[in-house]
Design brief:
Blueprint lengths: L2 H16 L2 H4 L4 H20 L6 H31 L3 H5 L5 H31 L10 H26 L10 H5 L14 H7 L3 H15 L4 H32 L12
Helix pairs in contact: 1-6, 3-4, 3-6, 4-6, 4-7, 7-10, 7-11, 10-11
Length: 267
Amino acid sequence: MQLSRVLAILLRQYYLLRGSMARVFPLFAWGFINIVLWGFITRYLNQITATGGGLIPAFLGAVLLWEFLSRVMLGVTTAFFEDVWARNFLNIFATPLKISEYILGLVLSSIFTSTVGLVVMLALATAAFGLSLLVYGAMIIPFVLILFLFGISLGIFGAAMVMRFGPASEWFVWPIPAIISPFACVFYPLATLPHWMQSVSLALPPSYVFEGMRTIVAHGTVPVGDLLWGSALALAYIAAACWCFTRVYRYAVRVGLIARYSAESIS
C-alpha cells in the first residue's frame, strides 16, 4: 500500500468539495435541521415533565451521535458515488491503485466530511440548547469510535452493493440508516422492543452504544460490557465489509460487470 495513492483519492474528494457548494451544503445541513428540531422538542418536553434537563443529553445527544453515524456512512458512499456519477470508476482502476488503497481513501474522505458535520452540530447544540458532551465523560470517545467504525462498514457495504447491482441500486443505500435506527435503540431502551427486534438489536453495535450512553447519564457508571461487545461487533463488521467489497470487485472484473458500469438499471 502506498500513501500517495491513498492521498490522491482524498485529494480528488477535496477538489470536488472545493469546487461545488452543492456538495458542501449537505455535510451539515441535515444535521443542523435535526439538531434544531429535536432541540426544541426536548426543550418543550423538559417544560412539561419533571425530568429537568435530563432529556437534553438523553435525546439531543442521541440525535447528534446518530447523525454522526449517518454522516460517516454517507461520507464513504458519496465519495464512491462521485466516481460512479462521473463515469470515472474504470479510469481509477486502470491505474495501479489497490482495493485497500481505494477503500482507505474513501475512509479518510469520510473522516473529513463527518468531522465537519459533527463540529457544526455540536457547536449548534451547545450554543442553542446547552448540550455538553462532558456529561458523558471521557467514555464518550470509545463509544463514538464504535459508531464511526460501524458507519464506515455500512458505507463500504453500500458501495459494494452499488458495484454489484449498478448505479440505480444507490436508492437502496440512502435509506439504510433509517431502516437500522428502530433496531439501534437510539431513543429508547432495548427492553422496550419486542423479542424478535431485540435479537436483531443485539447484533448491531449502535444498540450497545446508546444503551451505554443512557447508563452513563442515568447512573454515572461505565458499562464495560456494552463497550466490549460494541467494539467487537464493530470490528467484525469492518472486516466483513472490506471482505465483501473485495469479493464484489473481483467478481465484477471477472464477469465484466465493471465494464458495463454506465448501465442505469439494476442487472
